[in-house]
Amino acid sequence: MNLEKLKKLIAEKGMDWLIAAMVEGSIGYHSPKHAKRIIEEALEGQTEDYCERCMACYGCDLFRMIESDVRDMEYLEEKVPKRYARVLKTVKAIAGLDAGGQQVAGLMYPTMGL
To answer: Residue ranges of the domains in the chain?
Structure first.
């Protein structure tokens, strides 16, 4: 994944899709608000991220983290369409919450039964 591929992905699938991919890929570690901020940083040319997840799993490589989440979301979209639809719906609902609500939803995400 690089900046051009990221822009193309957003043009094709939309920002909400990518936000949902990052929330799902992180099992709720990223709230929709946090995921959006990370994506915007990548679009501004940032290549490293120092959140705990990116540091531990991707060696601070922001685009590797995004690529991993995109790959997982594409898998859901193709192979598990019912879960994919629930993820999109759930993340959209979470995005409508205030910051505290998003944080609570993120803590609950792994056990939400999606």
So the answer is: 3-104
